[in-house]
Amino acid sequence: MAAERRIQITDARTLHALASPIRYRILGHLMAVGPQTASDCASAVGASPSNCSYHLRELARFGLVERVPVEEIPSGPSRDGRDRPWRPTVTGYGTGPADEAPALGRSATVAARALSHLGIDDSAALAHAAIEAHDDLPPEWRRAEVLSTYGLRASADELRDLVAAIDALVRPFIGLTRTDAPSDARPVHLILDAFRRPSTAPTGAR
Fold first, then answer.
1. Residue whose C-alpha is closest to residue 175's, from 115, 95, 88
2. String of b and e for 98-107 (b: at least 16 CB within 10 Å)?
3. CA-based nearest residue to 19, from 126, 95, 83, 124
4. What is the DSSP letter of 95?
5. Residue 6: strand pairing partners
6. Which of 29, 95, 177, 195 lies 20 to 30 Å from 120 when distance is taken between CA atoms?
7. Alpha helix segments (H runs only) across the chain
8. CA 167 to mean position of chain CA atoms
């Protein structure tokens, strides 16, 4: 995928479909590493190849993934179509209405909220796995990894400007669109959470 394509998902059916944990992880995996077969996805998301094939077809039904055309596949077993690679049709997505857009209906709002919680839980699981794997990494990757939390004091306008500035710094490194990555580049998970700190205590893990 040469050009960036970030979409805003507002359709309730698509939001509900993506709120499936396995589908969410499959799409995230494809956006992180590029085209993969169902078998490749299975080892990454903890599901069977046949289960991943079903969920990939469901994601395709909602226009979020597609099969890689045969003519674009290098010579190998995948060219026979039995386990052809899939690729995402988007490089990123948001959920819910864009700024100044009308509010979602109740069904879409519930699905978008569930999807947000799923994303937080999945990122936390990845972070826990990264902590466990940290000591086995090469020294340069151990030095590069960071888990940081900052307590800021900012206005709403300042926070929007800060997030926009960070986004502008990150965007050239998006895996699906980067064409100048060095040979030692690897898929990296980067998450940015920015919100007004709740005044009440958290309700606990979901």
1. 88
2. eeeeeebeee
3. 95
4. E
5. 92
6. 177
7. 12-18, 21-33, 38-45, 49-61, 106-133, 139-144, 156-170
8. 15
pLDDT tens, position by position, 105-162:
888 888 888 999 999 999 999 999 999 999 999 999 999 999 999 999 999 999 999 9
DSSP 6: E
Find, among 86, 82, 105, the residue nearest to 11 by Cα. 105
What is the percent of the chain where pLDDT is above 70? 88
pTM of the model: 0.81
Q: Which two tokens stand for residue 44?
A: 């990454």
For tokens 């309730």, name the residue. Answer: 12
As given in the structure block, the two tokens for residue 117 are 């919680």
CA distances from 197 to 28, 94, 152, 154, 157 (A): 27, 21, 9, 11, 16
> What are 48's two structure tokens?
């069977």
**Please, what sign has the CA dihedral across residues 197, 200, 205, 206?**
negative
pLDDT given for residue 153 in this prediction: 96
Query: Chain-wide mean pLDDT for the chain?
Result: 88
